[in-house]
Amino acid sequence: GQSLEQPSEVTAVEGAIVQINCTYQTSGFYGLSWYQQHDGGAPTFLSYNALDGLEETGRFSSFLSRSDSYGYLLLQELQMKDSASYFCAVKGTALIFGKGTTLSVSS
Amino acid sequence: DSGVTQTPKHLITATGQRVTLRCSPRSGDLSVYWYQQSLDQGLQFLIQYYNGEERAKGNILERFSAQQFPDLHSELNLSSLELGDSALYFCASSVGASGHQETQYFGPGTRLLVL
After folding, report:
1. Which of A103, B58, B69, B86 has the fewest CB atoms within 10 Å distance of its CB?
2. pLDDT tens digits for B27-83?
3. In whole numbers, what is the pLDDT of chain B averaged over residues?
4. B27 conformational bin, left if phi > 0, alpha if psi -120 to 50, beta if neither
5. Cβ pairs bridging A and B (under 8 Å)
6. Contact A66/A56 with Cβ under 8 angstroms?
7. Of A30, A93, A97, the CB nearest to B42
8. Alpha-carbon distance B16 to B7, whole Å?
9. How far is it, in rounded angstroms, from Cα A6 to Cα B41?
10. What does the alpha-carbon distance between residue B38 and residue B43 come to, in Å, rounded to a whole number?
């Protein structure tokens, strides 16, 4: 089967750096995606890693280690608007999402 | 705005009833995916259609069915509704069939409340 584990909640203050980890178990792994969802809104795509290493997109970076079945999303220079849920997702026969990490950023 | 549209935004119905949720993908996208999001289960993949054909199936109940029409819009039919079916239902679309290297664009969702 397929499963993903990520922390349920993370808290941080504005300007800080936060890392959200994701470990996965799946067959037919193609890559690891990250999505952001603000409360009640639609999930939006943040990043995708197919190969090992770090991908940087502005304040957000994502890392993948295929040998460790592990990845993380790194959020830098946190802003209040980054308060949201963050989902890792792996693609086997379909895109399977983790249960999400709720990030709360305070001032 | 992702370009994916879903109707209705909200739906309130009673147990035992049947409802239909509608989704129009982004222009040019051939794949449509349906997801259910409830508080305790996160985003659960239900089913994928590609160019009118069922492509992948997830944890979709037998009471639920979907189809994709020639104009590529899709409908999710939920029947014999139970209280536990109350959830946010998202539709997403992508260009191709495999999805593993493709971004999925999500619609705003339909919030279903079964009383």
Report:
1. B69
2. 999 999 999 999 777 889 999 999 999 999 988 999 999 999 999 999 999 999 999
3. 93
4. beta
5. 56
6. no
7. A97
8. 21
9. 14
10. 7
| Size (chain B), residues | 115
The H or E element spanning position B91 is strand B87-94
d(CA A31, CA B5): 27
B-chain residue closest to A30, CA distance:
B100
Block residue for tokens 């040998």: A67
Give the residue carrying structure tokens 């997403």.
B92
User: Which chain B residues are Cβ-neighbours of A45 within 8 angstroms?
Assistant: 103-105
Find, in chain A, the residue whose alpha carbon is nearest to that of B2: A44
For residue A103, give every residue at least 6 positions away whose Cβ sits within 8 Å of its Cβ, in sequence order, or none. Answer: A9, A10, A11, A12, A18, A20, A75, A82, A83, A84, A85, A86
Q: Annotate B89-112 with b (16+ C-beta within 10 A) or e (fewer).
A: bbbbbbeebebbebbbbbbbbbbb
How far apart CA B54 and CA B38 sit, in angstroms, is 24
Distance in angstroms between the alpha carbons of the first and the last residue of chain A: 41
Q: Quote the pLDDT of residue B100.
A: 60
Q: Which of residues 56-95 of A touch B (CB under 8 A)?
A: 87, 91, 93-95
Contact B42 A87 (CB under 8 A): yes
